[in-house]
Amino acid sequence: MFNHDIGLEQLVTWYQQNDPLSPWHTLSRAALFAQNNEELNAAREYRRAAESEEYDYEHSMILYRKSIIHLAHAEQWKEAVELLDTKPALRTAITKRFQLYLKVSFTASNQKTNQATQLLKDFVRYSKEVEEENLDGEIETKTITFFAEDELETLRNYPFEHSRELPADPFLGRVTAALTALQRNKRRNRHSFDNRFRNEMQQTPPTIMAIYDIARDAAEKIPIEGLTYLERAQNSGKFNPSEMKTLYDAERALFATHKLQIPNSSRRYLKNLALPPLVVVDTNILVDALVDKIAHNLELASETSLDLFEHDNFHKVLKSRADAGRINLWLPSIVKHELTELSKRHGKLKAKFSSSLVKPEVLESVLDDAKIAKLVDEIISEYSRWKPLDIHTERDAIDEQSDQEISHFLAEFSEIYDELTDMKLRRDPKQNRTEINGKTIFPEPADREIMAICRNLASQSLEGLGSILVATRDGDFTLTARAFEERFGYGIIKNSKMLNSWLN
């Protein structure tokens, strides 16, 4: 129910008859409403569940996030904005673009269209310092304000970027109004591209060659924008299978021409190309794989081995998708090192089998150093298949600029990391947190290294790969997942549903 929004009528009935006041009853109702596309009911039940003391901070944030997403699908803008205002920590669980989408839609729905347009203009307003020569020939530094119209243009596609498309109106109307306001005194090529595309898509039927010409011309200016037109055409539902194949082939050809100018961070928008993501697997996922291998060596029945886990078999899903060629897997050196060190702590491994019917002497025989080391080698081989062409990929990712950017990013979310640290310390007092601005509440060095490596990968144009993803269940990543995606261009996945949302 938490991870997949799977609703079961029988479960709802059972709770209703046996434990109607349980927060799990509320959660089961929310999941059933979500499954039946009853958006508003799902949103309100998820919020009720989140307010229960049954769930810790991390899980409450997950439930609040589900609630606000369903409110958006229900077009309940007022309620969504009120939830965001009453739960400021929720801002860390959703992107700034989603927050903007909600606020613009809410403001526009109240007939305050000019104010909604201004919200969009303010979102892309920036300042920079420039040096100019004054009348006396002296160089002066001046601060000028400008609007990032490229960024505003990309917001046209925002409602359609998700696996479940968000309601387009009134948001798109305000985006168009904001662009018109900024471009009133200067006609730009991009704007004419968009006009040409919209005019062509209104034809019956649209001409594929005309659409390709628009995409090709736009790609000469900004490659990702040109390819986005072909994506929009394929997602429009206006073409038959043969025409869809032609559009797909055209997109492939255009991508091949411009791929070196399209970083992996932007390739997440090219879903129809089905480029396999590169999944960087965190240590906590690999520990499940190790325990699974130990279980098989103990000749446990599959039903019993499943009961050993608090979480699902996500490691098996990753391996299966990699075997099928849908994704690539990779382990940075720091992850390999962590797994090797954790495998030597036999006490923690034994605890995974505390509820199984395994004789202690049998368990001891399997937890032999040499045997465990062999299993670790197998896991590294299975989960680290991609080989970077640049052997210095990891080393180059760790520099002063990277450290500053990540530190600044983490500091922005100090409230959520403060809560998360308290929760982690209650579970294990020996947490290795790092310090920023005098607060020792931030992710450990190994996690920050993974963040830096993925930031570096996402900024590159890696051959044959799509998005960069981190597979992890660590709250240091998952609670700010959308912010990582927005700031650094890589995604966070912790279960098969989240992985599938990145696959075509």
The count of strands amounts to 8
Pairing-aware structural class of the strands and helices? alpha/beta
Major sheet details: 4 strands, parallel
Shape descriptor: globular
In short:
The protein is α/β, with parallel strands linked by helices.
What does this protein structure show overall?
- The protein is of the alpha/beta class.
- Among the domains are: 189-262; 275-503, no CATH class.
- The protein has helices at 9-18, 23-35, 39-50, 57-73, 77-86, 96-109, 113-123, 149-154, 171-183, 189-201, 208-221, 223-234, 241-258, 283-297, 302-306, 314-323, 333-343, 346-351, 360-366, 369-383, 393-397, 400-412, 414-427, 445-459, 475-478, 481-488, 496-500, and strands at 125-133, 139-147, 278-281, 328-330, 434-436, 439-442, 468-471, 491-493.
- A four-stranded parallel beta sheet has the order 4-3-7-8, with helices on both faces. A two-stranded antiparallel sheet has the order 1-2. The protein has a two-stranded antiparallel ribbon with strand order 5-6.
- Strand 1 (125-133) and strand 2 form a beta hairpin.
- It is globular, with a radius of gyration of 25 Å.
